[in-house]
Amino acid sequence: MTGDELIFELSTPGRVAYSLPTDETPLYDLAAELPAHLVRQAEPGLPEVSELQLMRHYTSLSNKNFGVETGFYPLGSCTMKYNPKVNEVVARYPGFSAIHPYQAAETVQGAYELMYNLQEDLKVVTGMDAITLQPAAGAQGEWTGLLIFKKYFEEKGERAQRKKIFVPDSAHGTNPASAIIAGFDVVEIPSNERGTVDLAALKAAAGSDTAGLMLTNPNTLGLFETDIVEMAEIIHEVGGLLYYDGANANAILGKTDPGEMGFDVVHLNLHKTFSTPHGGGGPGSGPVGVKEHLAPYLPSPLIAKEGEQYVLKELPRSIGRVKGYFGNFGVNVRAYAYILTMGPDGLKQVSESAVLHANYLKKRLEPYFDTPYGQHSKHEFVLSGKRQKKLGVRTLDIAKRLLDFGFYAPTVYFPLIVEECIMIEPTETEAKEVLDAFADVMIEIAHEAEETPEVVLNAPHNKAVRRLDEVTAARKPIVRYTKPEEN
């Protein structure tokens, strides 16, 4: 028997992977505390295996997973960069990991100091005047920023008329979702032929009912919005606000900041830019920064400094809490360790290397794939598989074929405004040899699409799981455990 076999195939009646106390030892009767309808009446039908078999099974499953530490992960817009292990070590220091938010402030001054210093550092990075660490993720940061918009207009007596949030057609999907959840109407602004916001369309849409513009810069095509100052003027002239989606801050560190561009509110994804863990449903952190005129509305409390003491400062005009306690503290510890390790020059090098890597890959692949936008890219870029589609090979097929070579696929079919889109972000942490190996494979797949398309169409060939019925999986998900005979 091998580790690749299903664990049910290893099951032998009477074999167990645990050891419980003898009958003489009193056990807590959990069933007596539960409502009757929650108490299981029949055995769950779990496999009967030894502890060693159980460990080999889960280890085998883990070896089938792909992560940034097992291979290149060029997931455009999601920044799957390496997380330095020193950050993990620091986050596990007992002074950080063994404390509780209900402790008296005088007993956790070190934790408060770290959060205060992180707020101060992020103010410099973003060009904002105040920062909250409360939001648990980028999307919650967006929602928080838009609630600040809402509160600002309420206090001005303009909430009823300020209903429209402008969102470019290249935006992250969370932008319109966050705006709607916050109670605004979403107006899509088209891109021009250069892949940036159509300035004339924005100007035509702006008016007294404008609440604001949500924008990522560089945008999700990897292009810098060179008209950003003009956009800020258009929105501010009609009394609106600018929101910066900081998911793509990797390209601007040490070069510019949202405050300089004219933004009023910004969120950062610490997992994308400041090297904290990414994926698996959490934990995350999406700090929000604001200019001075919006600072009173930030989630309360903030960590403040009074003399030599760090305290919780309540904000009477706050939108209220958006998360319990003060944010995901362990994630913030990792981000602060990263900032201290890198320093100003290191953070600047992050953006320079990310931009260099993206443009190097783009130039290597341009002869083999269509390039919708030829201008200089920032930290990521998009290709199009239209040329391969004419041969019967789609972008999805290319993505599946990449798996056979040990690479995770880039983001595909996003942004939606690019036909057969392939969105690639190499990050600053990869070596040139890895970038070249990836480019070589992409070029080989382009040749296969021309000469042996069936090889690409039937990929992957060497993975434990082949192609899934993704539509059925999404529409009819199996979200509970079932015994084999029930399937």
Give the tags.
487 residues; alpha/beta; Aspartate Aminotransferase, domain 2; Aspartate Aminotransferase, domain 1; 3 domains; three-stranded antiparallel beta sheet; globular
CATH superfamily of the largest domain: Type I PLP-dependent aspartate aminotransferase-like (Major domain)
Major sheet: arrangement of strands:
1-7-6-5-4-2-3
Q: What number of domains?
A: 3
How is the CATH topology of the largest domain named? Aspartate Aminotransferase, domain 2
* Major β-sheet profile: 7 strands, mixed
Number of helices: 17
Which architecture of the largest domain does the CATH hierarchy give at level 2? 3-Layer(aba) Sandwich
- Total strands: 12
Radius of gyration: 26 Å
Poorly predicted runs: none
Could you tell me the strand content as a percent range?
Answer: 5-15%
- CATH C-level class of the largest domain is Alpha Beta
Helix content: 25-40%
Distance between the termini: 23 Å
Shape: globular
What is the chain-wise order of helices and strands? HHHHHEHEHEHEHEHEHEEEHEHHEEHHH
Mean pLDDT across every amino acid position:
93
Helix-strand category: alpha/beta
Structural account:
The protein is an alpha/beta fold. The chain folds into three domains: 7-64, no CATH class; 85-341, 3-Layer(aba) Sandwich (Aspartate Aminotransferase, domain 2); 345-473, Aspartate Aminotransferase, domain 1 (Alpha-Beta Complex). It has 17 helices and twelve strands. The longest helix is centred in the C-terminal third of the chain and has 37 residues, at 329-365. It is globular. The two termini are 23 Å apart.
